[in-house]
């Protein structure tokens, strides 16, 4: 596919899971002259971007986006595109400490939007989430589903940030792409159900604690597909769409249960006769308060652009397990 070539791109959270894969993609496909990663390394790792350090095309800025300062604001001057991936991704933490998601997901997004406005950045890509839909009554859930009623502070912060993006687009002419991701998985991930299961089974290969009743069913997208879709939308579709902003679901067409994920992890680790211990946090079997039990995004709008995922949820889960176990690259 032919994508727009850009001069300067900023990736916030560039040392993190999805952000580092975006940088790899940009560099591998020679899509940008200058790539700037901004990260405070709270959850990201310099190891994720080690191959780019000291290269002419790459700049790493260690900075906390919760605190505006000229050190990182400088890089937004005349940026072609800012890809905003910096966030706290742990949905569960918002139950006990909601201030974390307010500050790290909403305040940070406001600061990035302000940096775009002051620096005259042309386009912003915002990493949103399927959690903005809450317990949707329509499944698969389309982008125009109403009402949007998130059931976690994480989802509420993402939704509030979406509205900030829309307002900045309308007021200041910043083109904005809002990407509502399903569960993104793959190498370099440091949290989520697959990482949790692998870690638990390494500690105790005889039993596995499963949060929830195991019937939770969700859509999973491999990070390779997530990045490919994001940059396809940002560098091919949005520039010619003739709109101030646009919203896309980015996910898969199928879904998989937590118990099925556990079975795949057990199989790939070469284990057997594992005792599953289910720990539902709610009467209807959710893993934690604020956990959306059933999630499947309608990706018809995304597919209408000509893009479709290369792996379904089952293949993505198995590939991720193998990659995290170092069986595959």
UniProtKB/TrEMBL annotation:
Family annotation (Pfam families): Epimerase
InterPro entries associated with the record: Epimerase_deHydtase (IPR001509), NAD(P)-bd_dom_sf (IPR036291)
CDD domains per the UniProt record, alphabetical: UDP_G4E_2_SDR_e
Positions of the NAD-dependent epimerase/dehydratase domain: 9-251
Family, per entry: Belongs to the NAD(P)-dependent epimerase/dehydratase family.
Protein name (record): NAD-dependent epimerase/dehydratase family protein
Protein's organism: Ignisphaera aggregans
């Amino acid at each position: 596919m032919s994508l727009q070539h850009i001069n300067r791109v900023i990736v916030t959270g560039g040392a993190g899971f999805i952000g580092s894969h975006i940088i790899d993609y940009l560099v591998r496909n020679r899509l940008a002259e200058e790539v700037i990663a901004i990260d405070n390394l709270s959850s990201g790792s310099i190891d994720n971007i080690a191959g780019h350090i000291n290269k002419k095309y790459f700049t790493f800025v260690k900075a906390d986006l919760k605190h505006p300062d000229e050190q990182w604001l400088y890089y937004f001057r005349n940026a072609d595109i800012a890809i905003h991936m910096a966030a706290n991704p742990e949905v569960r933490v918002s139950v006990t400490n909601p201030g974390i998601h307010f500050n790290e997901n909403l305040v940070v997004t406001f600061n990035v939007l302000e940096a775009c406005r002051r620096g005259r950045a042309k386009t912003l890509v915002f990493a949103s989430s399927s959690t903005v839909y809450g317990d949707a009554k329509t499944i698969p859930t389309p982008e125009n589903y109403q009402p949007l009623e998130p059931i976690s502070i994480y989802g509420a912060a993402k939704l509030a940030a979406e509205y900030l993006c829309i307002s900045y687009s309308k007021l200041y002419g910043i083109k904005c792409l809002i990407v509502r991701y399903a569960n993104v998985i793959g190498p370099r991930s440091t949290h989520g159900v697959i990482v949790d299961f692998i870690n638990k089974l390494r500690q105790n290969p005889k039993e596995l604690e499963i949060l929830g009743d195991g019937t939770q069913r969700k859509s999973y997208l491999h990070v390779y597909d997530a990045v490919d879709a994001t940059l396809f939308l940002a560098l091919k579709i949005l520039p010619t769409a003739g709109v101030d902003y646009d919203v896309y679901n980015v996910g898969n067409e199928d879904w998989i249960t937590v118990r099925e994920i556990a079975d795949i992890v057990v199989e790939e680790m070469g284990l057997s006769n594992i005792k599953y211990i289910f720990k539902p946090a709610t009467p209807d079997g959710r893993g934690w308060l604020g956990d959306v039990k059933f999630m499947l995004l309608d990706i018809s709008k995304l597919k209408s652009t000509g893009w479709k995922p290369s792996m379904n949820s089952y293949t993505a889960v198995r590939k991720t397990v193998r990659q995290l176990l170092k069986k595959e690259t």
